[in-house]
Amino acid sequence: MKKVFYLNTCDTCRKILAQFDLTDWELREIKKEPITKDELAEMHKKTKSYEALFSKKSTQIKLRGLDVKALTEKDCKELLLDHYTFLKRPVFITDNEIFVGNDKKNLETLRMFFGVS
Fold this sequence. Notes:
The protein is of the alpha+beta class and 117 residues long. Helices cover 39% and strands 14% of the residues. The chain has a single domain, classed as 3-Layer(aba) Sandwich (Glutaredoxin). It contains 5 helices and 4 strands; from the N terminus they run βαβαααββα. The model has no long low-confidence stretch (mean pLDDT 96).
């Protein structure tokens, strides 16, 4: 399995995806085709945390009046399944590895994974 979960309207996602040869990867645009319970379970199995998958920058946080600091793992799981913007993106997932988000350290690791400098 090699999948990338991304948002097509996100400039950062598009820039990151453009850096790699994704010919044999399944590309999933999460607005058109939201993540499933099984996919979220697979992501959680690799990260050991729903919070690690949760985007604290989601526009839905302010709209819903959520207190990010008060969210539990269960809350994060439910929100991730409820609305696509709660997923930190992009998410690259293989049978053995997962790369979540666009922070500098994650992108460096992802570049090493793809053999890109």
